[in-house]
Design a protein that fits this description.
Structural class: alpha/beta
Radius of gyration: 22 Å
Oligomer: single chain
Number of strands: 9
């Protein structure tokens, strides 16, 4: 037994060190996925529900039919883009559906006031102040950003909301054209 005593402090230290490495992960896993007001707060690229409240879910043929039937429909891409020192950083090339307005980062769970103002002012401009104008929100497949953006648009009074749930991935898989995109500047 005398041999175990000197090893115990080393083992205890190693175990405690291992535990401290695991704590941030455990705490992150314990963080709620949804805020008190219902916005998804993390794990944005994970399976999404089949529908979003206050919106009609579209597949690619349904989106094409909507665009043909209601040409005043506006497409809003909410894919994320790194934002540092007051500007977007092009860390990867992004392509989206033709005719889309890319409002980067408005699908996060919590929007700071400048991002909320960015979202509101661009939707007002895009719809010319008409809250009945059809808006289609999308991102990529398995992306909660567009789901959050729909909730946010509904809270602003927009009434004709659509969710292109599988977004850019589904459009591309259907062999339809994409356009090079840059996010709308944050002013």
């Amino acid at each position: 037994m005398p041999r175990l005593a000197p090893a115990l402090p080393g083992c205890l230290a190693a175990c405690l060190f291992s535990l401290t490495l695991a704590l941030p992960t455990a705490q992150a896993d314990d963080a709620p996925l949804f805020s008190a007001d219902g916005y998804r707060q993390g794990q944005y690229r994970s399976p999404t529900p089949a529908a979003a409240d206050h919106a009609t879910t579209l597949d690619t043929p349904a989106l094409q039919a909507l665009l043909k039937r209601e040409p005043q429909t506006r497409l809003v891409d909410v894919y994320r883009r790194t934002f540092l020192n007051g500007q977007f950083v092009e860390d990867e090339k992004h392509r989206n559906l033709p005719g889309s307005l890319w409002l980067a980062n408005v699908g996060t769970g919590t929007l700071e006031p400048p991002w909320q103002a960015y979202f509101e002012s661009n939707l007002t401009r895009l719809t010319e102040g008409n809250v009945q104008r059809p808006l289609v929100f999308y991102c990529r497949s398995d992306c909660w950003m567009s789901w959050n953006a729909i909730r946010r648009a509904h809270a602003l009074g927009y009434a004709s909301l659509y969710w292109y749930r599988d977004g850019i991935d589904a459009w591309e898989q259907a062999g339809l054209p994409l356009q090079d995109a840059q996010p709308q500047p944050l002013k």
